[in-house]
């Protein structure tokens, strides 16, 4: 075994590459950033800038803030939200109503508006969050319309109907109050600056990555321990809260709000801002907002034609720059793009100092926060399925299936195509719920657990048809693995607490180790979709390993690999076995099955037809019949 | 009782407009997976084309061809005009963006929606226009206490007839099978020898043409038309489409009629101001209960 390991590392070290060339050096980026901030800051002081232009700058700010808030939902998570103005309306009306009814100062109403808008988003989106793409889209449009119509219908005399609410006060900070266009200009852009700092911190944390995983492939995200529902809701709540802040500021600037400020048209504009800027791109959202506001202003002299030009411009933009004006780039940045503190300049140094992860099931797991192991891991059973039955309509895909996996061994599940093997894997990993039967893992019944909890308990899987996160880099893909054991949530990410920074560092170390182990270190900053097929399989394997599972379930790991690659894979699996990973494979390549399995279970038509050591199975007449058919007498 | 029947007939009429527009949504969505936000504006454009035909020479058309002939010409003109508009729209706004994915397509569709509605405003002006009373028949049919305008019955019959025709075409003919195949899997359908471009052509001509005709019918029935009425009709029709299960042709028709009837009943018995709130609430509740609409197929994603 030691021999194999050293061979493996030798081979891997040959493929180690250099850090990627940056597209442009960090210094240039910094200069650009400082210049942009200086320009924004000095704008109202420039000689030719009058109050009208300052107000345009303010409106750009409002749309930028709203664009940033929608970008969380639409850009980061990929949820079609075409009713986002509803949340802004809730914020604005919370401000307007409470200002008049309770005489609360506007400044105090700012956080209250954010909380009310966020809470509203939680209430209305939690029953519908599971809807797919276009269905969610119409529901958000519906929510937007319902909010606008309710405001218009003046329930309880609170909203004053179509006449709107006037005489809303200005923000008063005690020492000074915000009244002039210049003051409002600085007010909104300072708020935007703070929001952006928080958003960048979130984007470059496991929360932001989890959002992106969901956007890229929801099922793969689930299977890698991401609580999809919770992270989607989080995005909506956060996006709504920021929109609520924008509503508060808008209301206090114009001192007047009416339902038509928050129409579908406005929501559609926000949607365009995010797409014009580039999905998930923070500078893109600012740029998109500037385009949306300034473009019609430039064409103001054409009065009624300006929206026509605007519509045409949208189409032209999507034809020539479908990715947006300033798309978020991941690949050129290297590890610096991950935003993790104090990483060594040389990425290879990180790899050298990354500790070897502890063997699963052997303790001291504190460092990686694995869940406590509940059962003695000697020669016991790690996994048992008890009388699993799953039907799709009238078709019995898995029937009364019993199977067990012994700790520290490689078990293979074989059978002809369509026997129900992958379906059984989906039952074990919680993607399907069986009609009957139980799945017991480490002595615990996991039948009813959600996929993301099961992976946290220690079962990781790969997919038959590779499911990676295609537009994320390889290292980001593997970093989804440790997610399920990480603890630090949203607020630690926003404020970059030391504990959160330490955890992020651990995540990248573990991911680097696993990526290197499968020989893909050289490709760490490459997008997953650009890898050739065989390497994609390895990447998926690294991602599953990075969850530090006790049981690794591999669905046809060798399919699509050539002989050499298959051989390497077998060697690699032996290494993992030596590390203490128990494995369960579906495999068609009999060389692999017979070569590395300790135990083989044979499935046909949803039922178990044989099990035993590989040699025995090889000669079992029932198995031969299942594969080749019955011999004619 | 009389009110109930009256409201039912009104609901069916407006529901049939929704259904015709919804058909266009559903057909386009089926083959392109695109929510065509400009579809409601094509409906408006159809209404304006019909209006223009009827207004010619303060209605030389009606004078020459009679009331029924005039209306028929307006309908045919809108059908052809909007069919062509649909094809042009597909060429300039959707085909070049198709490869970029679904979100850019949505933005392109929103852009197209602005272009059409603002274009209508630029041509016909921002003020609402009216279909004049001289262009439509004034007769009534009397059933007991219920008086139903002949025009409304004609509109209802025509709309239902069109729906039946589309149903037959899509569900009962070989060409319809090709459309359904292309909607399920574009690549496989192409490999099986289906001419995908022909399907696109058909869908983008016929879907909008139906909407254009519905636009004329709307003008004939309610007389008042405005450049921005399309988005509300579009939204309602889109709601109907989703209610029935997007991409499902009979679903879109039933969804449209159902929506119209529910709306009319709610308006008649509860409140006009709250009817849209009610409609969207119903939509959301239906989707919570059945995430892919009333007649949508349950799709379990293959893992």
CATH architecture term of the largest domain in chain A = 3-Layer(aba) Sandwich
**What is the CATH fold-level name of the largest domain in chain A?**
Rossmann fold
Query: At the first level of CATH, what is the class of chain B?
Result: Mainly Alpha
Strand % of chain A is: 5-15%
CATH architecture of chain B: Orthogonal Bundle
Helix content of chain B: over 70%
The major β-sheet of chain A equals:
6 strands, mixed
Number of domains of chain A: 2
Strand proportion of chain B, as a percent range, falls in under 5%
Radius of gyration of chain B: 19 Å
CA-atom Rg of chain A in angstroms: 28 Å
CATH superfamily of the largest domain in chain A: P-loop containing nucleotide triphosphate hydrolases
Largest interface, chains and sizes:
A-B, 49 and 48 residues
Strand arrangement across the biggest beta sheet of chain B: 1-4
Q: What's the layout of helices and strands?
A:
The complex is a heterodimer of chains A (633) and B (303).
Chain A: H1 2-15, H2 26-42, H3 51-76, H4 85-102, H5 106-125, H6 133-152, H7 181-203, H8 206-216, H9 218-223, H10 228-254, H11 264-277, H12 282-298, H13 306-320, H14 347-353, E1 381-392, E2 395-406, E3 410-414, H15 421-428, E4 436-441, E5 444-445, H16 451-457, E6 459-461, H17 474-479, H18 490-495, H19 498-517, H20 533-545, E7 551-555, H21 563-579, E8 582-586, H22 590-596, E9 599-604, E10 607-612, H23 614-618, H24 621-628
Parallel strand pairs in A: 3-8, 3-9, 6-7, 7-8
Antiparallel strand pairs in A: 1-2, 1-4, 4-5, 9-10
Helix pairs in contact in A: 1-21, 3-7, 3-10, 3-11, 3-12, 4-5, 4-6, 4-10, 5-10, 8-10, 11-12, 12-13, 19-20
Chain B: H1 2-32, H2 39-55, H3 60-94, H4 102-124, E1 129-130, E2 140-143, E3 146-149, H5 150-172, H6 174-184, H7 186-191, H8 196-222, E4 224-225, H9 230-244, H10 249-269, H11 275-289
Antiparallel strand pairs in B: 1-4, 2-3
């Amino acid at each position: 075994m030691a021999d194999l390991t050293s061979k493996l590392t030798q081979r891997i070290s040959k493929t180690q590459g250099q850090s990627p060339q940056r597209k442009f050096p960090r210094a240039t980026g910094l200069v650009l950033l400082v210049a942009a901030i200086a320009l924004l800051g000095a704008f109202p002081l420039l000689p030719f800038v009058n109050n009208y232009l300052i107000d345009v700058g303010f409106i750009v700010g409002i749309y930028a803030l709203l664009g940033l808030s929608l970008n969380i939902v639409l850009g980061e998570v990929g949820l079609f939200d075409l009713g986002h103005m509803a949340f802004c309306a809730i914020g604005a009306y919370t401000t307007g109503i409470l200002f008049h009814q309770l005489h609360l100062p506007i400044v105090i109403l700012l956080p209250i508006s954010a909380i009310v808008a966020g809470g509203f988003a939680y209430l209305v989106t939690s029953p519908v969050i599971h809807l797919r793409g276009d269905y969610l889209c119409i529901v958000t449009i519906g929510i937007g319309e319902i909010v606008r119509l309710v405001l218009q219908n003046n329930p309880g005399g609170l909203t004053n109907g179509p006449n709107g609410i006037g005489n809303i006060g200005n923000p008063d900070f005690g020492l000074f109050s915000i009244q002039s266009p210049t003051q409002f200009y600085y007010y909104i852009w300072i708020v935007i600056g703070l929001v952006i700092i928080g958003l960048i911190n979130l984007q470059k944390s496991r929360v932001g990555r989890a959002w992106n995983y969901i956007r890229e492939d929801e099922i793969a995200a689930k299977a890698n321990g991401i609580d999809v529902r919770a992270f989607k809701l989080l995005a909506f709540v956060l996006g709504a809260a920021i929109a609520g802040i924008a509503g508060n500021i808008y209301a206090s600037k114009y001192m007047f709000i009416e339902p038509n400020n928050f129409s579908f048209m406005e929501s559609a504009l926000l949607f365009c801002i995010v797409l014009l800027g580039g999905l998930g791109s923070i500078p893109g959202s600012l740029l998109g907002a500037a385009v949306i506001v300034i473009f019609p202003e430039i064409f103001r002299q054409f009065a009624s034609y300006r929206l026509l030009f605007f519509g045409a411009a949208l189409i032209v933009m999507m034809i020539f720059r479908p990715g947006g004006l300033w798309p978020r780039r991941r690949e050129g940045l290297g590890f610096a793009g991950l935003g993790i503190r104090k990483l060594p300049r040389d990425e290879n140094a990180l790899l050298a100092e990354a500790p070897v992860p502890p063997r699963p099931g052997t303790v001291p797991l504190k460092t990686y926060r694995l869940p406590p192991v509940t059962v003695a891991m000697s020669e016991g059973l790690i996994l048992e399925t008890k009388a699993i039955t799953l039907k799709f309509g009238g078709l019995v895909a898995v029937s009364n299936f019993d199977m067990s996996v012994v700790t520290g061994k490689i078990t293979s599940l074989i059978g002809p195509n369509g026997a129900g093997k992958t379906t059984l894997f989906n039952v074990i990993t919680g993607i399907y719920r069986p009609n009957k039967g139980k799945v017991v893992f480490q002595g615990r019944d996991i039948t009813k657990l959600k996929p993301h909890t099961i992976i946290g308990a220690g079962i990781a899987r790969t997919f038959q048809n590779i499911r990676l996160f295609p537009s994320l880099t390889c290292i980001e893909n593997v970093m989804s693995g440790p997610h399920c054991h990480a603890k630090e949530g949203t607020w630690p990410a926003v404020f970059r607490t030391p504990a959160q920074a330490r955890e992020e560092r651990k995540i990248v170390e573990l991911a680097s180790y696993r990526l290197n182990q499968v020989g893909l270190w050289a490709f760490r900053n490459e997008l997953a979709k650009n890898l050739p097929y065989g390497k994609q399989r390895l990447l998926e394997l690294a991602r599953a390993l990075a969850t530090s599972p006790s049981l690794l379930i591999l669905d046809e790991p060798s399919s699509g690999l050539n002989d050499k690659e298959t051989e390497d894979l077998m060697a690699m699996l032996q290494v993992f076995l030596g590390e203490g990973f128990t494995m369960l494979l579906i495999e068609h390549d009999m060389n692999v099955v017979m070569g590395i399995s300790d135990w083989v279970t044979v499935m046909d038509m949803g039922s178990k037809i044989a099990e035993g050591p590989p040699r025995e199975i090889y000669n079992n007449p029932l198995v031969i019949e299942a594969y080749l058919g019955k011999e004619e007498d | 009782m009389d009110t109930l029947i009256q409201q039912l007939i009104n609901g069916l009429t407006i529901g049939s407009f929704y259904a015709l527009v919804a058909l266009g949504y559903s057909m386009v969505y089926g083959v392109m997976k695109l929510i065509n936000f400009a579809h409601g504006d094509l409906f408006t454009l159809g209404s304006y084309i019909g209006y223009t035909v009827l207004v010619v020479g303060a209605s030389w058309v009606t004078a020459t061809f009679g009331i029924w002939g005039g209306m028929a010409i307006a309908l045919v003109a809108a059908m052809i005009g909007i069919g062509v508009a649909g094809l042009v729209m597909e060429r300039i706004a959707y085909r070049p963006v198709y490869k970029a994915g679904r979100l850019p397509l949505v933005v392109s569709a929103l852009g197209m929606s602005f272009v059409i509605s603002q274009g209508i405003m630029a041509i016909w002006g921002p003020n609402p226009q009216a279909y004049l009373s001289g262009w439509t028949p004034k007769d009534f049919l009397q059933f007991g206490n219920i008086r139903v305008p002949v025009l409304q019955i004609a509109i209802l019959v025509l709309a239902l007839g069109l729906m039946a025709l589309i149903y037959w075409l899509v569900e009962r003919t070989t060409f319809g099978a090709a459309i359904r195949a292309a909607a399920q899997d574009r690549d496989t359908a192409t490999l099986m020898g289906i001419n995908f471009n022909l399907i696109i052509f058909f869908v983008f001509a016929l879907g909008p043409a139906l909407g254009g005709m519905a636009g004329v019918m709307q003008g004939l029935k309610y007389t008042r038309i405005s450049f921005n009425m399309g988005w509300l009709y579009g939204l309602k029709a889109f709601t109907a489409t989703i209610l029935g299960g997007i991409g499902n042709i009979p679903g879109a028709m039933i969804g449209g009629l159902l929506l119209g009837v529910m709306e009319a009943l709610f308006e008649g018995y509860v409140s006009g101001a709250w009817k849209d709130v009610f409609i969207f609430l119903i939509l959301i509740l239906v989707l919570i209960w059945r995430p892919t609409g009333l007649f949508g197929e349950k799709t379990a994603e293959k893992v």
